[in-house]
Amino acid sequence: MVEAVANTQKKRKLGSLDSFVTKHPLGVLPKGNALMLMGGNDTALRLQTLGPYFGSLPEEILMAILQEIESPLDLLHTGYACKALYAYSSFDELWKLMMYNQKHVPEAWYGSWRRSFWGLGAVSDGQKDVDSSRIVDCSGVVYSDFLFRPFQCSQIDYTKLIGSEEHISKRQNIHCFESESEISCEQFDSEWHNKPFMVQLKERIADWTMDQLLEVFGDTIFYQEYMSWKLKVYAQYMESNQDESPLYLFDCKSSALKSLKYQVPLADIFDNERDWFNLFGNQRPDYRWLIIGCGRSGSGFHKDPNGTSAWNSIVSGGSKYWIMFPPDSPPPGVTVDGELESEVTAPVSVAEWFLGGFYEQARRQPGFHEGICHVGQAMYVPAGWWHLVVNLDTSIAMTGNFVPNPKLPFVLDFLKNKSDQISGFKNELDCKDVFDRLKTLIASKSPETLATALEGVQKIENARNSKGKWHTLIDSEESSSFSFNFDE
């Protein structure tokens, strides 16, 4: 779902704006550059450039007004009033929202949401990444972190922040098995089920390339988060976009997936035979996805759904940079509302997290894990682990969720105590009944396994309750701490 533009921008933690300095296409500058103008009076400058009405409004209110404009022509014409309104009304997130609200599906991508909405045609060579329809120069007129920060984030070069692949390979602490024979089911169950790891596969899980997919499925609809485009349009988008968070093709429903052949990596460990959710049959949540994304695209910190574990393997293209933290160690910049983590708050984008200083904090925090996964390798993500992934180059991958035996207590605890967070089950299956249904299914296959798993659930609950009581005690002691009482 596309989030309201004004709300998204309010959530930003502005770090240094002097890194990755690149000229904004319209000449917009950070707000701090206006300090020497009008005696540092930001309001006076805005009144001068936007007029008495719009100039008196905070940027968030101005953008909230602009995003309420339903007519594309009205939004376009708003920019004709003055240079400042041209800059604000040309903000590409507004045109992304417009395309979403209008259910407009572009037949081609022309470098920006604004150009693509209007079908303004291909940009010339040398201007591939610049909206050449933006001929208005707003230099010296608009000073706005609101407009400049997303552009700055879109220019991020992750190799400058995290170092070269060779450098990271030397310091990465996510273990990589050099061959599939180095890890067995027994080793996974006893030692590795709660540790992230990579493995060099004997061969890639599939042999598709982007060109091959385009040749066969170029006119097929795929899902890219909140958009549904033909693959050939998305390929154009990947080649030429300036989005802060590039669209990520993450699809499990496209008709093309029925004909795409692949092998599950480490099938003895990851495949359906050892997956307890397989007992749900066709009622289980979607669990295998095709993933395609350009450089800079990726996923911010999250945990996989329903307490499941996951594997991810790159089929072709570039590499992925991973950061992980254990379940009880939220990454810097990510806050949760309590032990059950029903609400998670995080920076607007992956780039914002990096540029906001959280990456440097993360590297110093206990539990920090990092690694680069290449074509022909597979990454294992343990259940409950926080993870972030960034594509360093355009890549095609497959990923899958599963429930291995050692993580069954964790999953049952999730289904029992976090029923409001259960997702993905088919309509016929009431999420409130998933815990009991899975217990019944496991009991029919292995009563001993169920008994052992439920003992594990009890241990998890006891540990959580003890931790909760400790925090309550600490809070109580802090609230009753010594203070002088001058009333006596």
Fold and architecture overview:
The protein has 488 residues and is an alpha+beta fold. The protein is built from 19 helices and 15 strands. Among the domains are: 5-90 and 134-155, no CATH class; 159-208 and 260-421, Cupin (Jelly Rolls, Sandwich), CATH 2.60.120.650. Strands 1-2-13-8-15-6-5 form a 7-stranded mixed sheet, with no helix packed on it. A 4-stranded antiparallel sheet has the order 7-14-9-12, with helices on one face. Strands 3-4 form a two-stranded antiparallel sheet. A hairpin with a 2-residue loop joins strand 3 (221-224) and strand 4. The longest helix has 33 residues, at 447-479. The radius of gyration is 25 Å and the shape is globular. The N and C termini lie far apart (59 Å).
Q: Give the neighbour order of strands across the main sheet.
A: 1-2-13-8-15-6-5
The biggest sheet, with number of strands, parallel, antiparallel or mixed sense and barrel status, is: 7 strands, mixed
- Give the % helix: 25-40%
The CATH homologous superfamily of the domain at 159-208 and 260-421 is called Cupin
Number of strands: 15
What is the CA-atom radius of gyration, in angstroms?
25 Å
Structural class: alpha+beta
Mean pLDDT: 88
The number of helical runs is 19
Protein name: JmjC domain-containing protein
GO molecular function, one term: cis-regulatory region sequence-specific DNA binding
Pfam families: Cupin_8 (PF13621)
InterPro entries: Cupin_8, F-box-like_dom_sf, JmjC_dom, JMJD6_ArgDemeth/LysHydrox
